[in-house]
Specification:
Number of helices: 13
Distance between the termini: 40 Å
CATH architecture of the largest domain: 4-Layer Sandwich
Number of domains: 2
Radius of gyration: 24 Å
Number of strands: 22
CATH class of the largest domain: Alpha Beta
Length: about 400
């Protein structure tokens, strides 16, 4: 393959995968590319790698441009194997290279590629690295789309290396979007919807990070490199991730033995209201069932929780849950929660009841399968009174529901 140059001493060194590629439980009918980049400076640097099955091929192609033993830095913006997969092969051929990443990425890379003895440079938001003739600036972009993700910006070339962000899934020998024989916008939006939109809250972090960067080219890890109409693509992310203008409502219903589940309910209420969602909250033992059911009927999201006593729910909550099965609640989001001291069976019983309705019931399994997020848990289970760690768990899960409600697409 001919050398693909982005700027002086800057080369594409990735892999074109023109198969029908299995990816995130999708089939990429147009294939994809795994884009990696070589900055052939005084301290040669590689930014990202390729999918693990192409690691050997990646190093062989890279070796046509540089002796890998001379590489000084390997930057990993994101640890997912379609980006970091070539690291093991490259690290063995570049024994003196320092691996550059965020703090959460270090242990992941060590464990994934048996790199426990390698030198790592942990970078934080705003840090810079002089690679001899070029200066790299790093911005942390957590949860776009995993916790450890960052973006890298070359200050002299004004090139942004954002990994998954601003990508497309298209396999093409035409590397630059402005040279493609079609408008890539639909593919660009399709990638956003499939990979980035579940994490749209964090797009705000990205947009803020770009405010002080003069970006003249975007070199993502999949698909086309963008060097014209840059602001168009940035604006698309801002538009697609915007909140809906519709008013959203949530109903919280609970029973509580020692006020611990009440505290969880109040935390959920506070977080939803901070997201401009109108909340109605009911203690099922102190409220009319008809009022509770009417509120649930009008709500966009429903949270139901109970303390556990003798492996069961307490109070009048089960009477409410039995009636939900007879209601048409299609389109509503539902989540179970509760506090417990021993094993928390009541929370699971609530979850079972919710699954008997036609609501969109949140579960940890569903979240992981659709977003890859491992920090969001459903049902929300709190042992005894919520401490700081458990309050954080409540926040993650409630915010996830808030994002589902507020999504404009």
């Amino acid at each position: 393959m001919n050398k693909i140059m982005l700027a002086k001493d800057t080369y594409w060194v990735g892999k074109i995968d023109d198969r029908e590629v299995p990816f995130h439980r999708l089939i990429l009918g147009k294939g994809t590319t795994y884009n990696a980049y070589l900055l052939k400076t005084e301290k040669p640097t590689v930014i990202d790698t390729v999918d693990m099955q192409f690691g050997r091929e990646f190093v062989e192609y890279l070796s046509e441009l540089i002796n890998p033993e001379g590489i000084q830095y390997i930057i990993i913006n994101h640890t997912e194997p379609d980006h970091s997969g070539g690291l093991a092969a490259l690290a063995s051929r570049a024994p003196h290279a320092t691996i550059v990443c965020t703090s959460p990425a270090v242990n992941e890379l060590k464990e994934m590629y048996k790199l426990h003895s390698r030198n790592f440079l942990v970078v934080k938001d705003g840090d810079t690295l002089d690679i001899g003739g070029k200066t790299l600036k790093f911005k942390e972009t957590p949860y776009l789309h995993t916790e450890e993700t960052m973006i890298t910006y070359c200050m002299e070339d004004k090139i942004l290396y954002p990994c998954d962000i601003f990508s497309t899934h298209v396999a093409s020998n035409t590397f630059f979007a402005d040279e493609a024989d079609f408008d890539i916008t639909d593919d660009f939006i399709g990638y956003y919807n499939a990979i980035i939109h579940p994490h749209r809250r964090y797009v705000r972090t990205l947009i803020q990070a770009l405010e002080d960067l003069d970006v003249q080219m975007i070199a993502p890890s999949h698909g086309y490199i963008l060097r014209k109409d840059i602001q168009k693509y940035i604006d698309l992310y801002a538009t697609l991730s915007a909140d809906t203008i519709d008013d959203k409502k949530a109903t919280i219903v609970y029973t509580s033995l020692r006020n611990n589940t009440k505290k969880v309910a109040e935390s959920i209420k506070r977080i939803l209201e901070e997201n401009q969602i109108h909340v109605s909250i009911f203690n099922a033992d102190k409220s009319e069932k008809s009022a509770i059911l009417e509120s649930i009927k009008e709500a966009d999201a429903v949270f139901i929780g109970s303390s556990t006593k003798y492996a069961d729910m307490i109070g009048n909550l089960e009477d409410v849950l039995k009636d939900l099965k007879e209601m048409n609640l299609e389109g509503k989001i539902a989540a179970a929660f509760g506090s417990y001291g021993w094993s928390g069976e009541a929370i699971e019983v609530i979850q079972d009841y919710l699954h008997e309705t036609n609501m969109n019931v949140q579960s940890t399994s569903h979240v992981i399968k659709t977003t890859g997020m491992t920090h969001v848990e459903f049902p929300v289970r709190v042992r005894f009174s919520p401490n700081n760690e458990q309050l954080k768990k409540i926040e993650h899960s409630t915010t996830f529901v808030a994002d589902l409600l507020l999504s404009a697409i």
